[in-house]
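Page 42, continued from yesterday. The earlier attempt failed because a stray header line got pasted into the input along with the sequence. Redoing it now with the clean sequence only.
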Amino acid sequence: MFLKKITAFIIITGILISGSSNAQQAERYRYLGTNKVGEPILLDTQEIEGTEFKLITHHANKIFKMTFYAVCGDSRLTMTNMETYSESGQLLGQDETPEEITFKSQSASGMGMTYVCRKIGARGW
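This time it went through. C-alpha cells are written below.
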C-alpha cells in the first residue's frame, strides 16, 4: 500500500516536470518521510542550488512545493516559498513570505538540509 502511494505521488509530481523518464524521476526524488496524513515528502535533488532546496508533498488533491534556504554553519533553515498546484499541475497559489524553521534533524526539512549541507561539503555535516 505504501509503495503504491509513493509510486502514485511520483507520477503526479511528474506532471510538473516535462520530458523526464520514470527512471530519471526515481533518481530525481529522494524520500524523506511522510506528512501528517501519511503522504510522502520528497526532496527534488535536481532543483538544489547551493543550499536552496525544494520539498514536494501531496495533500487533499493538491501538490505542495516548498523552497528552503539553509545556512549550514549556523544550522538555520528558512522556508522562502510555498507553491500550491492542482493535481493537473496548474499553479493555484504562492506564498513568498520567509519563515524561519527550527532545525530538527529527523524532520523532512531537517533531512533536506542535512543532504544539501553534506553535498556542498559544509564543515560539521
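Notes: Residues 15-20 have pLDDT under 50 and may be disordered.
Reminder to self: strip header lines before submitting.
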